[in-house]
Amino acid sequence: MLWSTKRRLFFIFGILAVFALIAGVVYMTKYYQPPSCSDKIQNQGENGPDCGGPCSVVCAAQVTQPIISWSRSFESGKGAYNAVAYIENPNPNLGVREAVYRFKLYDQNDVFILERVGKTYIRPNEQFAIFEPRIPVGERIPKRTFFEFLSFSDWIKIEGQKPDISVKAPIPETGPTPSVSVSLTNKDNLSVQDIRVVAVVYDKDNNAMAASASAVDSIPAESSSEVVFTWPVPFPSSPKRVEVLPRVDPFEVPVR
Question: Starting at the edge strand that comes first in sequence, how are the strands of the sheet with 126-136 ordered?
Fold first, then answer.
């Protein structure tokens, strides 16, 4: 190959290389996006598109669905019932910001009465009760209560422990309007805000027979607060124990 031809080819390849470099810079500047947890691509060591690995969102295959232990309805006054579901989240470090659920009430003939839809959060490794108050049923009597989750927001990793709240709950006083005074103690060195509390009363056979809900605005660090639960109708039998389930929202309520 003649030297003049080699020089010409070298010059052409040089021009092409410059254009390629310019095009690469333009592409990188205008179009290239570094790997992220929102690009809908499985990259940067993820277990699926935008989930697992370095992403806070967890892939569905890595999540164990919440366990619905039981769901029941209890009379709360004339023509109204409270619906309660007892749930366990077995995932040790996974929770959701929003879980949409539904209660459906049926009478003794398995005829549908009414439904109620709501939403809640779910903390990691948590046993909790979902409480829907005063569902109007008119003259009909619910005999079966069906509970289901309709949808979940993304399951995400939640670091840190939930507030350490201990409970002292005596057996409820019986009578026409039963009640119980429960002591909640915040063992942490930070105050806890907006505590939602559900109390479930069990009979001698360990069957839930009543439930009530209340709220505490704040419990200072290493302090206690009293919360009173009442029921407008008598218990169907003598209470054996009461389980008190306090909850604090890890997404919306700061711990101070």
Answer: 67-77, 80-89, 126-136
Grouping H, G, I as helix, E, B as strand and the rest as coil, residue 253 is coil
Residue 175 domain flag: yes
For residue 28, give every residue at least 6 positions away whose Cβ sits within 8 Å of its Cβ, in sequence order, or none. Answer: none
Mean pLDDT value of segment 106-123: 96
Domain extent for 200: 165-247
**pLDDT tens per residue across span 138-179:** 999 999 999 999 999 999 998 877 889 999 999 888 889 999
- Return the number of other C-beta atoms located less than 10 Å from residue 216's C-beta: 20
Is the four-CA dihedral 120, 123, 244, 169 of positive or negative sign? negative
CA 219 to chain centre: 22
Total number of residues shown for the chain: 256
Task: Specify the residue for token string 């509390």.
Answer: 197
In a domain, 101, yes or no: yes
In this predicted model, what pLDDT tens digit does every residue of 231-252 receive, in sequence order?
999 999 999 999 999 999 988 7
